[in-house]
Design a protein that fits this description.
The protein has 450 residues and is mostly helical. Helices cover 62% and strands 2% of the residues. This is Repressor of the inhibitor of the protein kinase.
Length: 450
């Protein structure tokens, strides 16, 4: 066998082929695939040669869904194109690394936090990592909360004997004294506070596309409202920036505005400071984030989300859901039968006094399968559409803990069993007696000392 034939290539075609083999092994049929979710890597998401393309060719209804968790993180990253915001994030990373890389500095910061804000539960900074989705937002929020203590600690460190510490502390303190940094920091806090709950919800163990879409729509609506009426948010940002600026002995004021600027944000006449920072910092940050969210979570990318029109909380007439329903006609009865069931489903919830379910699983529990089999199938499809890859990634983390060097030669079945035991530690069926009974069925006998 030649070298080319034994080499394992991690191409999209090969990955897709392995996935199809596993699906056929478990289900015996791949024609019922309705969606596949990946994190956006080219080998997986490519429309021509990616794993998603392989699955699409095998099952035409298998649409590719970009992981919503990764997409939201990309929105937060791509939305921060304004220079002051980028410089602010770089400074936050540098200050956080400066403290966290030394146990002595961490202890000094904890003492200042207890002295300055004794009721503050957070005592150390969170590393700003662009690939850790919750920490990305949490880092900004915690940095804003601990900023007064950070300033006091850096001022004290300027008198330390360590040459590296006192010189770096002076440099970082100079960066924190910049008015543009303070305004950009608290503007980032406002946006991060809006994105953090959605990012946390998208990593939940049980979430369907309907719930995810509702959370994303609410977040977009909130950011758009701030974009249309930014005065209140800008005023709050300046109030918080002024409070920190007083401790630093600086004044929050717009920079000198020449008639023409090419290397700094300068949108028109500066006016007062609120107008300057609103036009040159806050609005560009909101606009960039909104633009990215609408592009990555639009209906054009996820046509199947129109199935949400079958949910009792947002029922739509037949004309609005007909196209997406007929898309899955191979799983359904005659079109007239499906249309009749849709009318019955609307009538059932027209005057219903109970709370209307807003997610696919809850709606499926309320749907009588014997009466409305086609509606039940459509709700099952909606519940099965992938939202994020958070659960597989959590499993991969478990695998890394379980697949140690000692266990490197164990079978896949045993590895999966160990990972499941790590997750479900309180399984009622897992007792000493059941484990011994399982071992007694094996030809290899062992002596156990209990």
């Amino acid at each position: 066998m030649g070298e080319e034939e034994v080499e394992v290539k991690m191409t999209g075609e090969n990955i897709g082929g392995v996935i199809l083999e596993k699906i056929n092994e478990l289900l015996g049929d791949n024609k019922k695939l309705v969606g596949c979710g990946f994190d956006g890597a080219a080998a997986l998401s490519s429309k021509n040669v990616g794993a998603a393309a392989v699955l699409k060719r095998a099952s035409p209804l298998c649409e590719y869904f970009h992981c919503a968790m990764h997409a939201l993180n990309l929105c937060a990253a791509a939305g921060c194109k304004q220079r002051d915001v980028q410089n602010c994030m770089t400074t936050v990373k540098t200050v956080t690394s400066f403290f966290n890389m030394s146990a002595k500095r961490v202890d000094a910061l904890k003492r200042k936090v207890r002295e300055k804000e004794p009721e503050q539960p957070r005592k150390r900074l969170v590393t700003l990592c662009e690939t850790r989705f919750l920490e990305r937002h949490d880092s900004i929020i915690v940095f804003c909360e601990l900023l007064p203590a950070v300033i006091m600690c850096l001022e004290e460190m300027q008198s330390w004997h360590s040459s590296d510490t006192h010189s770096r502390a002076a440099q970082l303190l100079g960066s924190l004294r910049s008015p543009s940094f303070l305004v950009a920091l608290f503007a980032l806090e406002v946006v991060s506070a809006a994105l953090l709950p959605v990012s946390r919800a998208l990593q939940a163990k049980s979430i369907d596309v309907a719930t995810a879409a509702q959370g994303l729509d609410a977040c977009i609506e909130t950011l758009q409202r701030w974009r249309d009426e930014p005065e209140e948010q800008v005023a709050n940002i300046l109030i918080r920036a002024d409070a920190v600026a007083d401790d630093l002995g600086v004044t929050i004021a717009p920079p000198r505005c020449p008639a023409r600027a090419t290397h700094r944000a300068n949108a028109g006449n500066c006016g007062d400071r609120a107008s300057y920072y609103r036009v040159n910092c806050f609005l560009p940050l909101l606009s960039g984030t909104l633009e990215q969210m609408r592009a990555r979570f639009g209906q054009n990318q996820q046509v199947s989300l129109k199935l949400c029109g079958l949910l009792p909380a947002q029922l739509k007439p037949w004309t609005e859901v007909e196209a997406v329903i007929l898309r899955y006609r191979q799983f359904l009865d005659n079109e007239e039968v499906v249309k009749a069931e849709h009318s019955i489903w609307l009538s059932m919830w027209k005057d219903a006094e109970e709370e209307r379910p807003g997610c696919a699983v809850a709606a499926l529990e309320k749907c009588p399968q014997q009466l409305l089999p086609n509606i039940s199938v459509l709700l099952q499809i909606l519940a099965a559409l992938p939202v994020s890859t958070a659960e597989p990634e959590r499993f991969f983390s478990r695998v890394n803990l379980a697949a140690t060097a000692i266990r490197a030669s164990m079978s896949e079945e045993r590895l999966e069993a160990i990972c499941l035991l790590q997750v479900y530690r309180r399984c009622p069926d897992l007792t000493v007696e059941t484990v011994l009974q399982e071992f007694s069925k094996k030809p290899r006998k062992k002596t156990f000392v209990l």
